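Weekend entry, working from home. Most of the wet-lab plans are on hold until the incubator is repaired, so I used the time to fold the two sequences that have been sitting in the queue since the last round of cloning. Logging both here for the record. First:
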Amino acid sequence: MTDTLQQSAPAGATARWRAAAAATGAADRVAAERAVRAAYRAAGLPEPAEVRWFDSPFAAVRAALALRAEGAVGVREEIRTRPWGQVRARVHARLGAPGWAELWALTGGDLWTQNQALAGRIRGAVLDELAPEADPDDDTEVRSRARAARTAVRVALLDAVLGQHDAPWLAAFDAAGELDGAELAPLADAARQTGWWWPYEQVALIAERPTELHRDEAGRLDRADGPALAWADGSALHAWRGMPVPADFLDGLGGLTAERIREEENAELRRVMLEHYGYDRYLAESGAEPLHRDETGVLWRIVLPDDEPVVMVEVVNSTAEPDGTFRTYWLRVPPSTRTARAGVAWTFGVPEEEYRPERET
């Protein structure tokens, strides 16, 4: 990857597939079905006799479970896995191990973490809705049925081609100039139009993309006033800064009190409450006492039941705002922090004894 074209290709491919992965709204169903049928032909398989559309992966998995119960055979291996492996091997042979590693780092690697987290959240939500875990107090037979149901859903999920969420691999193959080839062109065309789809011998199931996707600056699912990820049939995932939360949980954030936060038994939800409420406000209203103070700031600790304490350094920006005031910041630091200086030093990635700024900003 030394010439100008090769050096510029990864950025463009990554941008294109980042946009495809985040796309929402109804597909061009004619174009999507054409691509899916072409993917069957490219794999040497007869086209499906029927293509069925669903408004969400939740609905599509229900249909996949029914097909599997009737003996339907999935052909994901032929349609997606085998050509994927062939093209990857060809690109790897052409570029060599260092060249492939560089290509992946600039394309798929750049998209992988965020994309896989999103796909994982969808899988988890589908699994929990269609096959909830048994209660520990349930008898052996009930627990056994629950395990079997969850296994069936996991298998149905493995039958899926991820469409737009195959973006990391498609970005790498795009930058390598491989998406025009017969093996991957239909898969790329489908991914530009669809969410997940399930190829079986006689039937293809296609799920529409989400209708809404809300993320924070770090790319995590995040929304305080509704679902962070939603589909046309009402299926939805709710999250606050990446943390899964119940749908009705967000409705109560507006009326939070310090007492309500202390009473929350779920440690993860309590952290969400604290972030929304504001650590500084919670400290003030709960009568917390500082652990330590020095010229760098003030160290505070919030003790929480059944959870590690929240330790924060309160620092004041030495640069005045346009109106002449000085902004206060709250920096969360490890629970083991014992001094304000150590906490501030930790945020810069240096030991306390090495933190000697000439001018703090």
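Second, folded right after the first finished:
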Amino acid sequence: MTVHLPATAGELRRAARDGRTRAVVMTMGALHEGHATLIRTARQHAGDDGEVVVTVFVNPLQFGPNEDLDRYPRTLEADLKLAEQAGADVVFAPSADEVYPGGEPQVRITAGPMGGRYEGASRPGHFDGMLTVVAKLLHLTQPDVAFYGQKDAQQLALIRRMAADLNFPVEIVGVPTVREGDGVALSSRNRYLSDAERVTARELSRALFTAAQAVPRGPRAVLRAARAILDDAARMEPPIALDYVALIDPRDFTDAAPDHTGPAVLAVAAKVGTTRLIDNIPLEFGGAA
């Protein structure tokens, strides 16, 4: 199979689907094994007769004033190869003019209070930009189902809420985080870590998985267990500079109550050196951990 690279959304829409399921995986490029897992999952869901579309678009609306849009890696040739090997039929890599034909959009989707917490507090406006481009790409690709990684838990929660609140006719599916052998969640940002920083970064996932063992003792015990490891990591060389560690209700991304039952997300964000990393794991209280 040779992956198709349509030049415009019009060309993508004109491609014959004949009632086939269309699954989409949205990315900003610099694809790695985490993206490949998303594509393989989409392929499995769509089946041999379905169509898997991978979008590659570095969205300028997601970058804040202190975030370097020009620094973001652009590796389209390598991305095409990985997408094809993972089972994509189409890679849609639109220009900024294709996505934003009138220039910077005057009307945008707002993430509301749910997008102002945690990652939204650290990166004001980020989730408004993310939801705006996701909405546009859903319109441009017109999928039946869209796949997103659970590593970006707040992003996934917001996309699900947008699809429900605004009646998008698409199924949103979360795919478990892919990790490297040392437990670090796969991310294009990992390439910026030095060897010493990589050792420190391992403490993020260790804190999460150690804390998960405290689920039978309740939410407070889970947070205490995570904080104990992260406090120690703050004294490592190089240290972890913690932004937050929180136990979150995924329905609205508020703090889970001390007596919370049901699904929860244990999330952490920190800087190691100059690289900001996020990670999380899903938990279940009042049921199987």
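Plan for Monday: verify the second prediction. The chain has a mean pLDDT of 94.
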